[in-house]
Amino acid sequence: MHTTFLKPTIMAAAAILAVAALGGCSSPTPAHTSTHNHAGSGNPGQVAKPPKSATPTPTSTSKPTAKPARPAPLPANALFSISATVTASNGATADLLQIVYKPMAQDAAGVALLNSQCNYPGQPDFQGQPTWQAQYPNSKFMNITMTATMHPGSPAFLPGDAVNFEFGAGGVSAYTGAYQTFEAYCSPGYITIPGTITGVATVPSSDPAHGLWGWDTNPAAYGFDGGGNDPGEPDSGGTAVVSNCVVQLSADAKAASPIIAAWATQPYAQVNACDYRA
Question: How many domains does the structure of the chain reveal?
């Protein structure tokens, strides 16, 4: 994350022009993926960053964190949830919750949201680029809700103490609510505290978990991290530290892969925050 919070829009346009320049390559590159490659997301055409540790060593945070609220039981249609707390240097604290739902057929609301953030004319910078429907034909949708709830008596979070969220693999995604872009629309970004985000991402209809850009394929990532978790990260900014990670998995999520099944017992390391990889 950046200390300036939002990058200039010219970077988003540059990312799109770079994709257009690669259009002649034999391996297709998604036109709408942003250059946000936080901790090694690995999408084609993205700027690589050092991957986070796959087997982190438990590490205590450098500042005290509030006790997290007990997460509610998973909804019947949910794949998994990730809950956490976030603490900033000014003493601000909040609970974070991300619920990822099982893939479903496309609906009008999801189509409209993706059209507004991933297609022209909703995003003028995408003029001349393929639509998300053309890049990911016959996709199913995977929905998400995220909430950031302030603790009673907490001071306000400073604008620079942003919390980044991860959601999905290499397809496109769009959001509404307390959403701030990282570099461009049509990709994960920041959650405003307090606030609520709803979002939708594309997954392959033939095999939503393990097909190309499926929810359980590299570089799929989920969860939260703050600028204070890894101050040495080039894109880090602010003092927010995400900790007290709790993962709840449905039977479908556990069956998807042993990597997913191990999330619930993954040791906490401050540098990795509550960030989970497929």
Answer: 1
What confidence tens digit (pLDDT) does each residue in 163-217 have? Answer: 999 998 889 999 999 999 988 899 999 999 999 999 999 999 999 999 999 999 9
With respect to residue 4, please indicate whether it lies within any of the assigned structural domains.
no
pLDDT of residue 271: 94
The CA-based angle 208-209-215, given to 5 degrees, is 95
Domain span at 209: 9-51+66-277
Instruction: Classify residue 122: in a domain, yes or no.
Output: yes
What pLDDT was estimated at residue 162?
85
Q: Is residue 2 part of a domain?
A: no
Q: Evaluate whether residue 59 is within a structural domain.
A: no
pLDDT of residue 69: 62
pTM of the model: 0.78
